[in-house]
Hints:
It catalyses: a 2'-deoxycytidine in DNA + S-adenosyl-L-methionine = a 5-methyl-2'-deoxycytidine in DNA + S-adenosyl-L-homocysteine + H(+). This protein has a two-stranded antiparallel ribbon with strand order 1-2. The chain has two helices and two strands. It is of the alpha+beta class. Helix content is 18%, strand content 12%.
Amino acid sequence: MTNCNAKDYGIPQNRERVFCISILGDHEPYIFHEKQELTIRLKDVLEDEVDEKYYMSEERVAQLTWK
């Protein structure tokens, strides 16, 4: 059993998971991939200019944040 974080395997997420590997019979032990440095950041994939159609109106924001 081991803990793995997605960010240690080239995925731009900080998400920890627990993996349990069970092998029945006479097999080689499971070896997890070596960790690799995260080279992609969220800002690398976000666009600088976004079309207006993807923005929420102020009215809709108010509806979603109403308390």
